[in-house]
Here is the input.
Amino acid sequence: MKQRIPLEEAQEIVKKNLPDLSPENVILKEASGRILAESIFAPMNQPPFARSPLDGYALRAEDTRGASKDNPLKLKIVSRIFAGDRAKEPVNSGETARIMTGAPIPEGADCVIRQENTDRENDEVTICQELRPGQNYAPAGEDIEKGELLCSRGTLLRSPQLGVLASMGLERVEVRPLPKVAVITTGNELQALGEKLEPGQIYNSNNYLISARLEECGAKVTASLVAGDNKEEIKEKITENLPGCDFLVTTGGVSVGEKDLLLSILEELGAEIFFWKLGLKPGTPIVCAKLDGTIIFGLSGNPAAAVITFDLLVRPMLVEINGFEHLNLKSSRAVFVDEFNKSSRTRRLLRAVVVSSPRGEIVKLSRGRQRPGVLKTTLECNCLIDIPAGSPPLESGQEVEIFKLPEIYNY
Amino acid sequence: MKQRIPLEEAQEIVKKNLPDLSPENVILKEASGRILAESIFAPMNQPPFARSPLDGYALRAEDTRGASKDNPLKLKIVSRIFAGDRAKEPVNSGETARIMTGAPIPEGADCVIRQENTDRENDEVTICQELRPGQNYAPAGEDIEKGELLCSRGTLLRSPQLGVLASMGLERVEVRPLPKVAVITTGNELQALGEKLEPGQIYNSNNYLISARLEECGAKVTASLVAGDNKEEIKEKITENLPGCDFLVTTGGVSVGEKDLLLSILEELGAEIFFWKLGLKPGTPIVCAKLDGTIIFGLSGNPAAAVITFDLLVRPMLVEINGFEHLNLKSSRAVFVDEFNKSSRTRRLLRAVVVSSPRGEIVKLSRGRQRPGVLKTTLECNCLIDIPAGSPPLESGQEVEIFKLPEIYNY
Here is the structure.
């Protein structure tokens, strides 16, 4: 069993062991917000036929040559075509078809005059202007031409993409799968919300924190459970929930104390232990293993340590599967404009806030203490400052490496 | 009935007539992604008691004075305290308590030594270093102090907020309501996805486009229907769906053609017509009315016109109710770096793409035609260029006003 390995090594190990989930074939309405797993080319023209973009009269442009207020042209209305109609009658010279927005332009006609620019009397319409062929005429394929690339593999499907795919009549699309994750927070100290805290107890905030964070990464949380520091109870909850999920995330029980049971539980269950502990602060205590093909992330019970290792290790793996690149961390650099007086023997991550300024991106510490058990500091956190092992205290004005959290944490 | 009014006047009218929806009281898990309707102050300290941040031994710092490898200190283990335990026994001079991460620090002890830095034999532990009072000691309120502001009214609740609120034991919170919206797309030409297109028909893409866009603005789509160009059918679908929704959005039937039925239907139903037509292109044809207290937006059947008026008029009204400011349009300016040769008699909105560049924000037209019936141009559109009425063609390099779409359309 590897111990206290670098983050990047841990990421590599997990990445090599990711479950191989197939794309999902979903109906179009359910594809909203998903990532396309296939490239889609237009199976048809849109519109499929030449149509009128407005309410008016379809006619032959050549008929209007010389037409003016002084030389009005009278055309005979030979048909009326509404949107949804088939255009049956052709338009011959001297004729016109009353036509509504979206209706097919009949054979023979090559332009449409806006009804506000005409005078009508019974079945005759008067036109006092010349028209060009193609004027107010939306040709077949004006919007989309058959065969063109509509959306490439990897596209995030939002309303415009759904609209375009719907306009092609496509009922179903292949999208990247959403990994299913079960959450088990462990600890005798955890009390349910709404219950009275007994001495020594705290509320089970990790369950809310981790479940919501999973969903923010596009995971489906299949179960959200709590277990006491009891081997049998934890074992049972793991083995019961393992078959229904692609990942299992636990919190608590992964350090060196006498009730840090997770490592031995996983060993007893026959899991392959990838590693125990990371060379990170906060976030040293973590177990990562694989049992019956499912990866288990045993995160720290300290909420900030849990969130930080979640973001550095669990988040990128979820994104690897669901394709939500916009929800991944982004490496960047920023100028540190705050105080941090500790030197860092171990690699250290600080919860921080990065903002744009006229001189580039600047970063300061989040409000709250930087201890692993402190959750408040995550409230305004939109990035992590990455301090290499062996660094002296930070100086205001120095450039630092940061991992930016996704945009959704900026609001 | 007002006609062809400016956008800003239309926005004012609708804003004055918005339904007055009460905040929702939801359980914490359901509050994820919602906007807080109340400010929340900490009802308690977190942690509620002084606790150990690590696995070790709780003791009195003064006992360690002078302790070193040459002068080891031996302390008697008088109790073992796990997370979740009540700390019963006080620690007196010469004594220590075995203590695990998260466990309450017993009376008398004022620091904790990490277990890795001790030697233990039976019920005695040997310490070879001095400790400071408060060392490895997480005081009550270390994370959150009773009475402090946790989340102010208007906060978007993400996982960190849920975690913090859960740590306070708060089961329920008041959040801004999500407006319920019914969608009716109208038109004889509309065919359902997966069916064969008959001549003159197109697929009903507006339904997908508008329903998904509503959900992207945080609305709940209560119904998503289609109706032919038939007065009775449209009336029936409006009156059936009106009671269950806060807004009703239709597409089609709002221009000047013979099958543009919506305006007369609304009049016959006794609706108060706020206005018909906007001084905008695309997007001139639109009806806005109020029937039985519910606002009805009758958008154009042309998809681009529908999306543009949706974004300018419907989106801000939804945000006004649900508080999702990050989903609203933002006015900005950018340098136009493309070609657009038409002059604009009417105020014109162009679908465009804005990107940051070293010289500031630059904007170019989206791929596709700018016609109202063309949907493709919305695919990469992340902003609208706002060209005032009476403007000449745009020149590359000129500064233009833009409405930026929310960040979600940037991915």
About this structure: The mean pLDDT of chain A is 97. Chain A has six helices and 24 strands. Residues 60 and 269 of chain A are 81 Å apart (CA to CA). The helical segments of chain A are 7-16, 159-167, 205-216, 231-241, 262-268, 303-322.
